[in-house]
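Researcher: Here's the sequence for the chain we discussed earlier.
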Amino acid sequence: MADDKHPDDAERIYLFVQHLGRRLRDFDREVGMSHRRFSALAGLAFEGPTNVGELAAFERVKRPAMTRLVQDMERDELVERLADPHDGRGVRIRITPRGRALVKRVRERKIAFVRTHLQNLAANDRAAIRLAFTALDELAEPIE
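Model: Thanks. This is the structure I predict for it:
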């Protein structure tokens, strides 16, 4: 039975994700970016142009909040608006080269942070981590 000093596996995984996420978000703050901004930019970098409504749904925020975030990112030349080729009145949001470079830089720093830790582990510990992630991959899949 789990207690505060000895959490069960589910709680350990939950706490690990929360604490590592907090440490990784520190890299966002180092470049003056909120985690919400980094997440939206990364989504645009990897998923491609989209509209504000789709981006809000993907980021699980209300449309007005995403509209403000997009306006701020547009002001900072991280995203740009394009005419939607399928909707004459619609607008698509696309990451700019500046935004893409920022995502790349922050993402590389986050990965390097994790990589450094992993490289300092024994080979059998790294193998156990790979095995654990194989077993847990489905847990991180989005709910449709």
